[in-house]
Specification:
Blueprint lengths: L2 H8 L2 H4 L13 E4 L2 E4 L16 H10 L14 H4 L4 H11 L13 E2 L8 H9 L13 H13 L3 H4 L17 E3 L2 E3 L15 H10 L1 E3 L14 E3 L2 H9 L6 H12 L19 H14 L1 H4 L17 H4 L4 H9 L24 H12 L11 H7 L1
Antiparallel strand pairs: 1-2, 2-3, 4-5, 6-7
Helix pairs in contact: 1-5, 3-5, 7-11, 9-11, 12-16, 16-17
Bound molecules: heme C (3 copies).
Amino acid sequence: MSAGKYLATAGDCVACHTRPGGKPFEGGLAIETPFGTIYTPNITPSEQDGIGAFSDRDFLRALQHGISPSGSPYYPAFPYTSYTKVDDEDLLAIKAYLMSVEPSSYRPPKTHLRWPFSIRDLMFGWQDLYLNAERYNADPNRGDDWNRGAYLVEGLGHCGECHTPRNLAGATEKSKAMTGAVIDGWYAPNLTDALDAGLERWSVDELAAFLGTGIAKTAHDSDPNGTGDAPVTEALGPMAEVVHDSLSKLTKADLYAMAVYLKDLPAKTEPTHQPPAPNRLSAADEESGRDLYMAHCSACHQDHGQGRTPYFPALRGNPAVTITEPNDVIKTLLLGAPADPSDAFSPYVVMPAFGSILTDEQIATVASYIRASWGNDAAPVQSADVKVLR
Ligand code: HEC
Ligand code: HEC
Ligand code: HEC
């Protein structure tokens, strides 16, 4: 893999710049924002329809400053707010790679945002307020791994674009960096908080393995009943795509560096972020939850939620199940896994979607059951929560 291709993979450019069924980098993916739908442009080397006419300077200005060759600002659905941290040399290697892919004459639909967001020049004001256009500065007090990890996580990896909450103007909030946010209904957990993403439970090596494979084994502390089956956590939804398209193709050394940096993020816990409430399932809910679980889930996840290595993740002692925000459990039940059926990421058996099989009430009941059984102790899910995410 050329240096440019590797860096484009670390930046996951293909994920946004390819529409479903389209050719890589030809754009046309619809990105929903609170301000309307934005379509990604064609970034193949076509002179007419792609970025074939971009000079090196144009390319750097786009990725580091969010300004187009004609001088108008880009919308921040293009994560230049993260790419601004990346060196000129690395970005120009990405450009050289993009110039080597097959040109496409596909023209993505035009972006029409709701007024006043349709006025692109308003984004100049936004950039004044929220864009800190600055390359990554290595911290001389930290080691090489830490600095490399920070450069990748904060820059090309643009992890904060999903894991950092946004303000009403749609900008990521610096003071709450990596403290967890909702994205397309999924919850990207707080990566600084031991309770939330469970990073505390993982060693640097385990976390690096999770980033590279989407699978984490934490056999050392989450197998209380000693069945010998190592419970596993698997990446879901948007995170499974990040692993599939990008992280799984990075070197072990880079994944290790990212894990070193992530494990060192200072803990920041939102005041609103209460520890899980104690399980308050009524006897009737527990019984109907168990019935649903035995009918629909136990064949794969096993009678006591212990899962089966290597095919089915454990639900017992799994932070993805007991996390405060139940979004990801609900989304997984509605959509199955992997969320996108064209995504052949999982080497294992795919989980069926229950969205059309179970009612909101039943999904809430079985989700509440798995969150409160076998030693799990997370608050119940309401059928209204399911309705919103359906
Ligand atoms: C999260 C989605 C996302 C990712 C990831 C992403 N882009 Fe984009 N990109 C966009 C959107 C959306 C726009 C258009 C913004 C607008 O219309 O204002 C854009 C615009 C661009 C443009 C300007 C094209 C033009 O015709 O003006 C370039 C160049 C570009 N991206 C390159 C890249 C590269 C290189 C990467 C990977 C390092 C990348 N993008 C990753 C969403 C993304
Ligand atoms: C497109 C949005 C998106 C991006 C970009 C993204 N994540 Fe995630 N991430 C999520 C979501 C949603 C989840 C929760 C679902 C899950 O647990 O897999 C998640 C979960 C995680 C978890 C916890 C897994 C667990 O089960 O406890 C880690 C660790 C993580 N992400 C690290 C990263 C890193 C590092 C990056 C940057 C290289 C990154 N993420 C980029 C959306 C994203
Ligand atoms: C045919 C087998 C199968 C059935 C039936 C099944 N699952 Fe799954 N489940 C899986 C697999 C495989 C995964 C991991 C998918 C992935 O990450 O790609 C999974 C993942 C999950 C996760 C996410 C765990 C994590 O660590 O990210 C939850 C929660 C879950 N299942 C709950 C349920 C519930 C509740 C039911 C019953 C309503 C159910 N599953 C039925 C196979 C199954």
